[in-house]
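seq as requested:
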Amino acid sequence: MALQASSSILSRIGIEITPYYLFQEGINITEIPEIKGDVADYSFELLGPEDMKIIGAINFVKFSEAKLLSLLNAGEKCIAIKHKDEIAAFMWINFTEFSYKSTAVQLKSNEAYLYFMNTMETYKGKNLAPYLRYKSYEILNEMGRDKLYSISDYFNSPAVKFKAKLNSKKLKLIIDILIFKKLHWNFTLKSY
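struct tokens:
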């Protein structure tokens, strides 16, 4: 907690220090997640341009509709679980790179980067996020994408617990340092 408070103080003077985990997902799946409630009311869908207005209007989404459309146009995919045509949970998949802060790593043809997973407030507690993640693994495996990566901030304990629930494997603990939005370093603190 002291490290997190120190990081907040440093960011005010232009120094950002962010520790994060790199995970590999979709391996060692022990059980298939199940949705709590009537499964017949839910559908699994690939979202299109018409859905980006809805996602862009959500208060916790940091991207505008235009930015979300640009992600789709760049070949990224947004998949969702809908409840009677209402978006209940969604996530994004990048096929070309995984990026975090100022770092970007190009992906191979058998890799994908899973990110920006969100469940709408009224649908939390229904086990939608694990189910959506599992469905993404199935689709990506069918596409020949068998190495799936994701990133979670070190201090985001709910995200880290979520990855543990999915039997994701921690690959690295990395620290990202950005000074005055100009100087950038990335160091691996630990490999697992």
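Strands lie at 15-25, 42-46, 77-83, 86-94, 97-100, 103-106, 111-119, 147-153, 169-179, 183-191.
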